[in-house]
Amino acid sequence: MGNVRAENVIAPFALKEIVEEIKSLKSRKAPGYDLITSKILNRAPGGRVVMHSSISGFHPGGRGFKSRGGRTINMMKLLKKKTEIQPRRSNEITGTNFGTRIRTRIGQWNVRTLREASKLAQVENEMKRYKISILGLSEIRWKENGEIMTNEGNQFIYSGNSRGEYGVGFIISKQMSKSVISWEPISNRLITLRLNSRIRKVSIIQCYAPTEVADESEKNELYEQLTAAIYKVPRTDILILMGDFNAKVGQRDPEDECTATGTHGLGVLNNNGERLRDFCREHNLVIGGTLFPHKNIHKYTWTSPDGITKNQIDHICISKKWRSSLMDVRTMRGADAQTDHMLLTCEVRLKLSALARNSTRKRKCLNTKELKSEAKRFELSQKIEDLIVTESPITEEGIQRIYRRAGEEVIGTINPERKWWISDDTWELINKRRTLRRKLLTDTNNNAVREQHKTICKEVKRAARNDKRRYHNNIAAEAQVAAEQHDTKQLYKKIRLLSNRGLNKEHPIRDKNGNILTETQRQIERWVEYFNEASNTQLPEFQPEIWASRNEERCNINTSPPSSREICEAIAQLKNNRAEGTDGIRAELMKADPLQCARALQPIIGRIWETENICKEWKRGIIVKLPKKGDLTNCSNWRGITLLNAVIKILAIILHSRIKDHIEKRLRKEQNSTRHSIWHSWTSRQLSTP
Fold it and tell me: How far apart are CA 489 and CA 224, in angstroms?
């Protein structure tokens, strides 16, 4: 009996030919084909096929399987036609999901600063090169705290102070960001992140500890905050603690009872190392960098400017209970972001899962600029006409489907491109700097290479600053052109970019008691509570009695259902470049052919007018929150605007046009709520006159 090891893996494209051979046996009714079908093939991770190792009659060395009918299937020869046998790689990195058989990389890096031009782009580039899913950062030196979406689509959360000292944060890949439950900025040295998992929740704490020569009070304050943060982590969570601790833990003596460290540490124990070791022992953590045997070049995480002194001061720790999930910890010497710290990575074996959120899928924005063309407007009108015929009779939901489908098929959607302003020449300089750094790591005494590395570091900084300056100058020139053409939309957009207000930053908020809310669901509930209180006031206990004047004439307001002409005039009054509501219909779609739209909407609006019953979906609005000044963790420092559906706007315009003339006659000059803007200007001038 011959055995084939499970490491011999068949590529997916060779499976087809094997199945054809098996089918040929079946077609001739040869004995033994059912045995081959049931045992010879076995699914392996990643969609590959593994040859089973317990089949009698299979002969290694290329002879194949001899069936009971006497026919030999030469499997090895068949495979060599298309592919070679591939060794199974159990440590394959995908960089997407955590899995029990797929290792996922988590990294920690002291980048020294992210305030330099192009520094964040360089860090993201290295994160992509090494397929890191979650990267903890130290010394980012950004002010305050917040959450942004980078140009690469990654989620970046950070915590700092008003002076921009120290600072920590996380860069979470686009795929992993779906698993984020909550995050909490504790201080400019601590930040926590909680992720969803199929087995347990995962809590990660990123830390930046004071140096060895810092005051003892500063060290004590940090470890007190760190202790409080760990006590907040649920006991059922898998805890990962990482960061730049400025701690040398050294090697553990085999006779030492300390279980927080292993025997593969580097350096001599110092005060910070003793603090970290005692802290991990108290909270049942193990320091991952001391557990795995590696060369010293893959252990040290910091190098002095002269390249002589090297220490292991950055660490990744994990709960002792989940020690078996930590597969490896080592530094990546090839990562370069112009910092004296090495990129420290660990490989874990867990399974993260995306959270089931109740939010609806974000709808893509239609490219309404195409409707400036007469041909596109005509094509859109023809498409809508064809859909109206097939949709008849038209309902409230049908009108949404018609205009949305016609818009997507005729003018398409906008796919916003996020790209960095860094030029190709600057990226080439960055690659040259990485090459010189590798040479410097292998030959630390080469002064010529060291001088070249210093020179090219300066060139990279200079080139990045020039690229950023050129980018801002181009935006300013575009803003000037928009101002000359009276294009206020583009002008405002360019001004936002120049003032650095184009980033959609998210901030954690507080509840009524002043407690920070970090979970997304609890934040949504708080916003619902706040806007309900702001929009819905309680009625007074005693209602005032308002008597009508005897001499007041009766208002002769038209109450008949709106005509097509009236609806068409209301459509013409809709404003362009406005965000759509829940229906997804932009005003430009209806204004492409107002008469056609009026004829389609007249039966629906007439039915609403007669029955006084509006579709429940049309009553819904999307509340968008906009920041004001002050503390943004306080909900009162935000204001909300509501995005309404297009048909409701049309109905409101019709009602306003019918009653405004009658109301104007009965309002005093001081009442400006429904008057033309000229009355507001007159009142403002009167109030400002001394």
Answer: 50
Q: Are strands 343-348 and 326-332 parallel, antiparallel or unpaired?
A: antiparallel
What is the C-alpha to C-alpha distance for residues 399 and 183, in angstroms, rounded to an integer?
A: 42
Contact between 440 and 90 (Cβ < 8 Å): no
**pLDDT value, residue 60:** 38
The residues facing 170 across adjacent strands are 136, 157
Distance CA(371)–CA(592), nearest Å, equals 7
Buried b or exposed e, range 9-26, using 16+ CB within 10 angstroms: bbeeebeeebeebbeebe
Residue 385 identity: E
Query: 280 with 317: CB under 8 angstroms?
Result: yes
**Which structure tokens are listed for 621?**
């609005």
pTM exceeds cut of 0.85: no
Q: How much is the CA Rg of the chain, to the nearest whole Å? A: 34
Q: What pLDDT is recorded for position 539?
A: 74
Burial class from Cβ neighbours inside 10 Å (0-12, 13-18, 19+) for residue 191 reads buried
Q: Residues 629, 159, 419, 360: is their CA dihedral positive or negative? A: negative
At residue 73, φ and ψ (nearest 5 deg) are -95, 110
CA–CA separation, 591 vs 554, rounded Å? 36
**DSSP characters for 594-623?**
HHHHHHHHHHHHHHHHHH----GGGG--EE
| Domains along the chain with CATH numbers | 8-87 (no CATH), 104-348 (3.60.10.10), 424-498 (no CATH), 509-535+557-688 (no CATH)
In this predicted model, what pLDDT tens digit does every residue of 231-279 receive, in sequence order? 999 999 999 999 999 999 988 766 666 678 988 999 899 999 999 999 9
Name the DSSP class of 212: T
Q: What does the alpha-carbon distance between residue 107 and residue 204 come to, in Å, rounded to a whole number?
A: 11
494 in helix, strand or coil?
helix
Helix (H) or strand (E) holding 384: helix 374-391
pLDDT in tens, 497-545: 888 765 567 888 899 998 888 888 889 999 999 999 888 877 777 777 7
Question: Helix 374-391 vs helix 396-410: angle between axes, to the nearest 10 degrees?
Answer: 140
Longest CA–CA span in the chain (Å) reads 114
Residue 74, Cβ density class (10 Å: 0-12 exposed, 13-18 middle, ≥19 buried): middle
233 within 8 A of 285, measured Cβ to Cβ: no
Q: For residue 641, give the 3-state DSSP assignment.
A: strand
3-state class of 454 per DSSP?
helix
List the structure tokens of 180: 């984020």
